[in-house]
Amino acid sequence: MSSNFKNLYTSNNPPIQAKLIRGLNIESIHKIHAVICDKKGRVLMCAGNPEYKSFIRSALKPFQAIPFVSSGTASKINNSSKSIAISCGSHSGSKIHIREAFKILWEYDIDINNLKCPKITTSSLQHNCSGKHAAFLATCKKLNWPIDSYLKTDHPLQIEIIRIISELLEIPLSSIRPERDDCGAPTLYLKLIQMAKLYSLLGSSDNAELEQISRAITSNPIMISDHNKFDTEVIKASHGKVISKGGAEGIQCMCKVNEGIGIALKVEDGSKRAKHAASLHLLKQLDWISELRIQDITDTILKFPESVRMEVKGQLNFQES
């Protein structure tokens, strides 16, 4: 039986609950598992099951960008910080996002038709993963790797990404399970504690490439999602002290920059509204962002009709030894 269905949490650290309330009645209840880890992967605090497994989805993007940086591919591009940020982003397909993704392809003389992310209306550049795909292609061009098969799990680029993840997590390659994400790129089936460890490393200064990626994200928050979108607003509200990156199906990862602490959470039913509400609830508990700014984000992101609200209960508790 999957570890997701074992009752691994004790009575003193149950999952967080997010309830959608309409008038005086509870309409929906969402169960959320969350964990904070340090860069050695030690659980500091948790709510629910810290070993809950799920696909990391787009929260993997900052780590998929490592070869783009380490190979020197990004450094050739003018204002490479923006190019690195868009490669990590799940953007809204606005003109500034399209322009930045296209710039990567232009610099390496890559035809737009080589992008294998789905087309949105008329162009693949509008897809929210186009920056990642453009960076993948540029890295392949720089290293003389095949262009047409860049998304296959046995492609040199994807093999290198998985090798990097296994090294960062200090786990065997054989234990990493890649599957196809909706954009066509591989994503990984990981424990929440492993996702939190990755983000604790992103927020530390131990790895030169991750530090460069971290700086690019905090310097260009609009490239990570967009104005009035969750990740961008969290990074802006924290003045670049918190990195936030979500993934589909209720995944949210965050870290405190220069402190080597990462958070990962998963909403069991995949609710986007619940992950945003729970993330703000945890940011408030941890005092990573001021209550005033958290309220601003709440008003911007969690808009409900009159008489409808979301209520979050529960908190992270220190892990008992």
Q: Can you put this structure into words, describing what you see?
A:
This protein is of the alpha+beta class. It has a single domain, classed as 3-Layer(aba) Sandwich (Beta-lactamase). Helix content is 36%, strand content 21%. It has eleven helices and eleven strands. It has helices at 61-64, 66-70, 80-88, 95-107, 130-142, 156-169, 192-202, 208-219, 230-237, 272-286, 291-301; strands at residues 16-22, 25-38, 43-47, 53-55, 177-180, 186-191, 242-247, 251-256, 261-267, 308-313, 317-318. Strands 1, 2, 3, 7, 8, 9, 10 and 11 form an eight-stranded antiparallel beta sheet that branches. It has a three-stranded antiparallel beta sheet with strand order 4-6-5. A hairpin with a 3-residue loop joins strand 7 and strand 8 (251-256). Helix 3 packs across helix 4, helix 3 (80-88) packs across helix 5 and helix 4 packs parallel to helix 5. The model is unreliable at 1-7 (pLDDT under 50).
Q: Kindly, what is the distance between the CA atoms of the first and last residues, rounded to a whole number of angstroms?
A: 26 Å
**Integer-rounded radius of gyration:** 19 Å
CATH architecture annotation name: 3-Layer(aba) Sandwich
Summed over residues and divided by their number, the pLDDT gives a mean of: 94
Q: Which spans have pLDDT < 50 for at least 5 consecutive residues?
A: 1-7
Category from helices, strands and their pairing: alpha+beta
Strand percent estimate: 15-25%
What is the C-level CATH assignment? Alpha Beta
Q: What's the total helix number?
A: 11
Q: What's the structural domain tally?
A: 1
Shape: globular
Order of helices and strands: EEEEHHHHHHEEHHHEEEHHEE
- Helix content estimate: 25-40%
According to CATH, what is the topology?
Answer: Beta-lactamase
Q: Report the strand count.
A: 11
